[in-house]
From TrEMBL:
This is RCC1 repeat-and reductase domain-containing protein. The keyword DNA-binding does not apply. InterPro entries: RCC1-like_dom, RCC1/BLIP-II, Reg_chr_condens, Ub_ligase/GEF_domain. It comes from the Bacteria. The keyword Repeat applies. Pfam families: RCC1_2 (PF13540), WD40_RLD (PF25390). Keywords: Repeat. Residues 7-231 form the RCC1-like domain. SUPFAM superfamilies: RCC1/BLIP-II (SSF50985). PROSITE patterns: RCC1_3 (PS50012).
Length: 288
């Protein structure tokens, strides 16, 4: 189903119950739940059609956290709005914001990611910065102290991609290795139960993309194969160029342009015309 009133879109993101899109002109549009101001239109009114996020232009990257939103401008600054009870907006307060505010003391950013209630960003120099909730060490600074402004994640550089999940974080370095930190309750970070600073996830390398859902990590290798774990990586697909993960389901695009999905399907989130869970990938009709 096509989203009404939206065209010329170059990027999309989905939070827990809201969605974001960037248009070619650098504006950001949002729809869905707005109870915490995560749509950024100056209200807390839910929207079932897209509304423009107030006061934002020249946007090159977006991220949707659980109930908040992030955006990167062409000048490398980061802007945030929505829920802020754990400082996930990074503006040195814990007050919700219904319109975008600038994340404090952060510049030269090329990528942002929003988790349940913590945020990550990559600078041009390959360093990683985090802010928000840190009760499971998902900020990677060796503590469990939350921060409402950005801090540098120590001991890791040359990073090209990050993922912020509910209670853990992943980073992909330019050498193709994956590093992780936070709560490792299902083995998605390796073997230790808690990892308070970044550690390499062994037994997998030559990675070009990473993703994560609840209690699981995923990666695409240079050869196009997809690997998923807690604990021990197993191959689940091949010939893949793009990957996305929800709470309990995963979607990939293959080199031939076909769409495949697997995992939980109780609400039809796999798009295969059923509500049957799938433990192996099934091809999805893209409705073209």
């Amino acid at each position: 189903m096509q989203v009404k009133g939206l065209s010329n879109v170059v990027a999309i993101e989905a939070g827990r119950s809201h969605s974001l899109a960037v248009k070619q002109d650098g504006t950001v549009w949002a729809w869905g739940s707005n109870s915490n101001g995560q749509l950024g239109d100056g209200t807390t009114t839910d929207r079932n059609t897209p509304v423009q996020v107030s006061g934002l232009s020249n946007i090159v990257d977006i991220a949707a956290g659980a109930s908040y939103s992030l955006a990167v401008k062409q000048d490398g600054t980061v802007w945030a709005w929505g829920k802020n009870d754990n400082g996930q907006l990074g503006n040195r307060t814990n007050i919700n914001q219904v319109t975008p505010v600038q994340v404090s003391d952060l510049s030269n950013i090329v990528d942002v990611e929003g988790g349940y209630n913590h945020s990550l960003a990559i600078k041009e120099d390959g360093t990683v910065w985090g802010w928000g909730y840190n009760g499971f060490s998902q900020l990677g600074d060796g503590t469990r102290e939350s921060h409402n402004s950005p801090i540098q994640v120590p001991g890791i550089g040359s990073v090209q991609a990050v993922v912020a999940q509910n209670d853990f974080s992943l980073a992909l370095r330019k050498d193709g290795t994956i590093w992780g930190w936070g709560w490792n309750h299902s083995g998605q970070l390796g073997e230790k139960y808690f990892i308070s600073t970044p550690e390499r996830i062994t037994d997998i390398s030559d990675i070009i993309a990473i993703e994560a859902g609840y209690a699981r990590s995923l990666a695409v290798k240079q050869d196009g194969t997809v690997w998923m774990w807690g604990t021990t990586p197993v191959q689940v697909a091949d010939n893949t160029i793009s990957i996305g993960a929800g709470y309990g389901h995963t979607v990939i695009i293959k080199q031939d342009g076909t769409l495949w999905a697997w995992g939980q399907n109780g609400y039809g989130q796999l798009g295969d015309g059923t509500t049957i869970d799938r433990n192996t990938p099934v091809q999805i009709n893209r409705g073209e």
